[in-house]
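Researcher: Here's a chain I'd like modeled. Treat it as a single chain, no partners, no ligands.
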Amino acid sequence: STVTVSPAPGGADPATWAVAQEIREKLINDPTLAPLGSSLIANVGKDGVVTVQGTVSNPSEQQRVADTIAALPGVQGVNNQLSVGRVTGEGKLNMNGQ
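Model: Modeled as a single isolated chain. Structure tokens:
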């Protein structure tokens, strides 16, 4: 799928909006990250530091997501708050990764 980059809405910082759009596009269009894109939340601070939250299945995925975001233009750092585990059918987090 393709991502449409839209202009920043009124009141939004155009620089942080552009970084957020880059992150969104990368998470959706990269086939190795696309399955994760819908369960991750990335918040871009005015300082260019991105806080990423969500759940990934293993530590290598956690690092890959953080590294991918860190490599994008405009990102000054990543506050990696990703959890390793999986969400069960009841919406509970299983930290054993099973």
